[in-house]
Amino acid sequence: MNQGQSRLLDACHFPTPENAVDLAVSGGPDSLGLLLLALEHGLVVTVHHVDHHVRPTSTDDARYVASVCRELGVRFICHDAEVASGGNFEARARAARRELMPEGVLTGHTMDDLAETILLNMMRGAGLDGLSPMVDDPTKPLRDVRRNDLHFYVSASPFFPLYDETNESPHFRRNRVRHELIPVLCDIAQRDVVPLLARQAALVHEERRWLDELSGRDLDLGLEEADCRDLARWPAARLRRWLRAHLRHADEGDGTHPPSADEVERAMAVVLGDVVATELSGGKRLSRRAQRLTLE
Fold this sequence. Notes:
By secondary structure, the chain is an alpha/beta fold. It contains 12 helices and 8 strands. The chain folds into 2 domains: 3-110 and 145-168, Rossmann fold (3-Layer(aba) Sandwich), CATH 3.40.50.620; 219-295, Chorismate Mutase Domain, subunit A (Up-down Bundle), CATH 1.20.59. Strand 6 (277-280) and strand 7 form a beta hairpin.
């Protein structure tokens, strides 16, 4: 193992060697790097690949990943998914992958993905949860690895990564954050902002854990059990945190998310009696009647 490989492995958060793990491998440079590093670390690997049958070359991608696994002596499982074209395709494709993959499957998300997710979450008004994604997530073992370092590692291997042309499309918001927003931020800051965002995420995560300890008893109080007269006497920050926990919603691809800042403020208006009801993401409606809340 050369010095570069050792440095990358030191930045990874893999289970101890000889453990069995499932990996999500599309064949792209990030997931291919995940596979090679996991094997370098001594893990017993099963590769899972999802063929969405959307691009004409998607079946060829599956065959290529299967051939890499044969050469590496790794078990390969291909999952077929049918995702209709149309709006919010990326999110719906992620939802399909999540449904097909085994629980706890490891993915090749890097520190750069973490930074992009923070910025995307800021755009939707997310609070502390949105500012500290992926931190301590065991399914994201490459969260402290830089994307460029990972790609260089893969380029030095005997295998070539597959490239999905949609990763360059400006039609997807994450791509614009990656190719436009982050370079502008780096230019304005005159430094690489990705490690800064990652350190901020780690600090925010620590504060979240502390707040979770402080508010543990609050979360035992169910949404429809609470008396709005009691809630109205809580400090605003305490009420916001309680509402964010109870109003998490599932979307079409990113799992569950806390409500946006605007939604929390509108929910607080319901609790305080300023309005009778409000519409929330995920097709939900929060209403108040006789000092009790109902989420439908």
